[in-house]
Design a protein that fits this description.
The chain contains three helices and five strands. By secondary structure, the chain is of the alpha+beta class. Strand 1 and strand 2 form a beta hairpin. The structure holds FE2/S2 (inorganic) cluster. The site of FE2/S2 (inorganic) cluster (FES) has 14 residues, from loops.
Amino acid sequence: MPQLHFLTPDGVTHTVEATVGQSVMAAATAAQVPGIVGECGGCCSCATCHVYIDAPWFEALGPLDEMETLMLEGAVEPLAHSRLCCQIEVTEDLDGMMLRIPAGQL
Ligand code: FES
């Protein structure tokens, strides 16, 4: 199972065992990662699953679609490497990916 590492602003890393095919948001909420709410259930309409993803992972995920780009404009403290993790499907290739939670989202 791919492992995903969520870093919260207090410096704590929350490592989650994810299932291939589920969304990164679903893996995070099932493990109760602080700061990931997933209020809309993953239909890209709430931005409560916002994360920062650094290189090389951000580039490897490919481009955002128009809906995700629009929703990120309303996210907490968006940056150039922001993503909504409900829009990312877990694959074996994501094993070891680091995701950071925005400070204002806790
Ligand atoms: Fe709502 Fe991701 S869970 S936008």
